[in-house]
């Protein structure tokens, strides 16, 4: 066992400064609520908890001592010591440093570390932890892990194994939901065994259909099929992804509800038969079935629909004797008909927005329930106070991304702003690894109204500094400022409808483009004039000292723009007629003198690679399958190979009919972004 990090008291103080500000403000905003989240010191829970996770959620659980009760400066709110587990590459990770104790449980691959039950059980025994909080992902919904903990008298901070098993199997959970009188999606109530059976069932249900892993979640092992051919392909990929991610390749097929909203209900239940619904979260902004922006409450639900959804969620929780925090997910159509999708038997990624509008600390409630305490609150106590929005900061925007990896060379969270919360597990210098989820942080803003929360989110995104890795902040900003999103006109198809060709970055309007070009030209001239004064005027400048008129060419993207600039005193005048304006520029610009621009046309240009004849890896990952060999003839659209990254399998296809010249990869190999995989003649 290895210990890491600062002394616990100093660690708590430093992280309280980072994480305490929003919740102290939220407490003030929630002062009219009928209850308080202030901990009762007379309630004894656990002396030591092991957190079987990493990254931001491990930090979030560890920060329970300071997160809610920062106003009272009581850093020992629940008096609980924490143990972190980490892989060898995470030995210097924030979650490992901030815990009271940290134990290495294996090498980088998740199967050998964060999913290594034997090593984690050894860590529990070595540290004397009395309970385990699993966070989300990894072992959070693994019934075998919960059983092993129970066998050794260690509390699992989550539901019991019966609920995990019942709700973790999509086939069984659907049958239980039906019996509990919860609305369900029409489909086949059983396991689909073969491709031929899948096609037959899909035809009987009627296209489109959703093929998904029985034991799945998080968008993995899910495919939408519109015809027989897509059903065959979807069956193959879904089963492979399901086996890789969950160790269970069973699939089910159900009717695909076209253009729905994805709205989920947060539930909280204890071991004494009490259960509450804590309102909804709108999660319709998704990419590849993975959530991007969430908000609470939803703009779409009226009080009656909210009540009906909440009551059905509680009915389902009670049907499986659920105890802990959990989430019941629904698809909601345009007429407000809602259908059970799945139940996540764990803390949800987007739980902070529920905490903001209810004032409840869900981690604290999970710990209380695990110790056997009854819920403090009744259903009528649960309010909707204000509005909260969460943006998941991680995906790059190329093709809606294939996850970005790298090192954070510069990192600054917008915690100087009021009503902003950032849940993260990284710092400047941290690596975003190929082995784990590439999420950088969860950015949460709160307001008395939705408009206030959106304005605060826009401000927070503008003040978030991330360098060294590709990130999705430009996309997040475009989403929250888009007229459709602002009006609440959204569905799970929002992103593909608004960006059918993928997000290409912010598109400037004509007047904004001219303003940007004029500002770039003025800044360039300012730099030229300043350079003349360097080293007492000895530095040679391309601009004469007496010059006050310039002809320039400014390149923006692929465009080239000629302009004239004059200077009188401290005032620049640009011939395109726009006044000088201070701009925050996130675009790549190159400013050339008129002569340099003319000479530049004689410079040799790099010839773009003929991508129709070669296939390069679009991301770092592992080759799962290679479907061709030299000499084969492939058709346009034919699969060439399959690459797995972040537990998602991606089929790479030929863009033309051609003969395979050479193959440079084989199954099991790890490849980097841009690596040559296959050449065509």
Automatic annotation (TrEMBL):
One of its GO terms (cellular component) is mitochondrion. Its EC number is 6.4.1.3. It is an enzyme of class 6 (ligase). Pathway: Metabolic intermediate metabolism; propanoyl-CoA degradation; succinyl-CoA from propanoyl-CoA: step 1/3. This is Propionyl-CoA carboxylase alpha chain, mitochondrial. GO terms for biological process: lipid catabolic process. Residues 176-371 form the ATP-grasp domain. The holoenzyme is a dodecamer composed of 6 PCCA/alpha subunits and 6 PCCB/beta subunits. Interacts (via the biotin carboxylation domain) with SIRT4. Interacts with SIRT3 and SIRT5. Its main location: mitochondrion. Residues 45-500 form the Biotin carboxylation domain. It is found in: Mitochondrion. PANTHER family: CARBOXYLASE:PYRUVATE/ACETYL-COA/PROPIONYL-COA CARBOXYLASE, METHYLCROTONOYL-COA CARBOXYLASE SUBUNIT ALPHA, MITOCHONDRIAL-RELATED. Residues 606-681 form the Lipoyl-binding domain. GO terms for molecular function: ATP binding; biotin binding; metal ion binding; propionyl-CoA carboxylase activity.
